[in-house]
Design a protein that fits this description.
heterodimer, A: 317 residues, 5-stranded parallel beta sheet, B: 249 residues, alpha/beta, Rossmann fold, 9-stranded mixed beta sheet, 27% helix, 31% strand, globular
Amino acid sequence: MSVLLIAEHNNKELRPFTYNAVSAASKIDENLHILILGNKSEAVAKSASEIPNVKKVIHVDNEIYENFIAENYTSAIIKHADAYSHIVCSANTFGKNLMPRIAALLDTSQVSDIIKVISADTFLRPIYAGNAFATVKSNDKKKCITIRPTSFEPAPATGGSAEIVKSEPGEAFKNSKFVKREEIKSDRPELGTARIVISGGRGMQNSENFKLITAIADKLNAAIGASRAAVDAGYITNDHQVGQTGKVVVPDLYIAVGISGAIQHLAGMKESKIIVAINKDGEAPIFSIADYGLEADLFEALPQFLEELNKLNTIQK
Amino acid sequence: MKILVAVKRVIDYNVQVRVKEDGTGVVTDNVKMSTNPPDDNAVEEAVKIKESGKAKEIVAITIGEEKAQETVRKALAVGADRGIHVKVDGVVEPLAVSKILQKIVDKEKPDLVFMGKQAIDDDCNQTGQMLAALLNWPQATFASKINLKESSLEVTREVDEGLETIEVNIPAIVTCDLRLNEPRYASLPNIMKAKKKPLEQLNASDLGVDTKARIEQIKVEEPPKRKAGIKVANVSELVQKLKNEAKVI
């Protein structure tokens, strides 16, 4: 048995969730190899080789991989698939886009978004927006699996020295072309990996009022999230959306402000270690999962919250 | 141009899903069922393209038990021209669904196939990508904006880092995000008219597709419940609790 992990990176460094995927993958089998498909991506291969859990790095460098187009990735991955019992990657938009294309060509029924490795063929995964957990056993010979990164701790980044093997690129796919990427640059921690997340919902009433959230996020070094209602109302961009069809976050502290707690939103945050809800409707479902609920008008509570935080001598970063 | 739109019948998104006591699945008896929400966006987008004069025909397809037809009828009521129902009982995994769709694509020869990016029941997010692989077509997943050109599509995709734009040549698969458009409601006259639109019924076995499950569902259980929390009286109590009890700030 051996596991091939498809790395997510930006040609300069591994994306943080690759480290979480490494932990999950090495729970399946210790014989873990990592495949890097990139362009001018030597530094990525080097970082991958330094992860102690990784036994071998396969590095394919070619301009067709510059923008991580799944159609181009697929032919290269299929070339290597024979040697592995499992092919895995993160269940974020990168892996969700990629893995089913591989699984279909290998005639494998993919297991998506696992949150626990029970054995090499049996996994736990949430269904119905996390309202149920299914234990599933894959009976396919070769297994294609995506891993919910926030359910696994990141693997250590240094200390290893796996060999790096260069490999030839696969065939280029002519019918898909990358045009552009509009990344939202921010000095804040990434939503998916932040220790603290503060999110606003429909109760924020407009985008201007998100400044109240921003001020607290600045103070706590927190990432900013939002419910789908707030995104759809145009208060904030979609990359902030937390929920079943947005991002899944598991911070130490999640502060839900003006969010009623639709099941689709809870699906994205209810595994957070500590949940705070601030809402003026005392019956809002969010209170049923909050560790600390504050029934209050957010427009009064948020400025007070900031004031109280300013009074504290120290805030953990 | 011809557009094939795939729709799935799922438990309505407003229903609080309950796990069966025997651990074999979730309760579906007497539970409201609806079209998977992003599949409604897929239908809407196809209808908009037809209204703009760029498409001639929209074919809506569903795969599932007898009642799954309702989702096709709903698509017909908002503007699809005809329907296909491939009858299969029990769970059909995305791999089998994509194989069935491949057979239908071979027969119908659509220029575009649209569907939702993910079904809200199994949350798999696989079918569109798998179908694209089987057909060796390009895939534009998680689409929030589509710009139809002469022989290609420019698609804006919702990705973790923000937005990505790709261009795919037709024929292509598009999986739709909830943000792609605002699905319309069917009017009563259109619901009545939809009943007269053609709906072809097929059996998965007639298409020669093996729908046997490859993944064994061993058990389904409730997720661990969170301990009931407390209500705090005011902001300063909240901050004290976070600092001294939870120790998270």
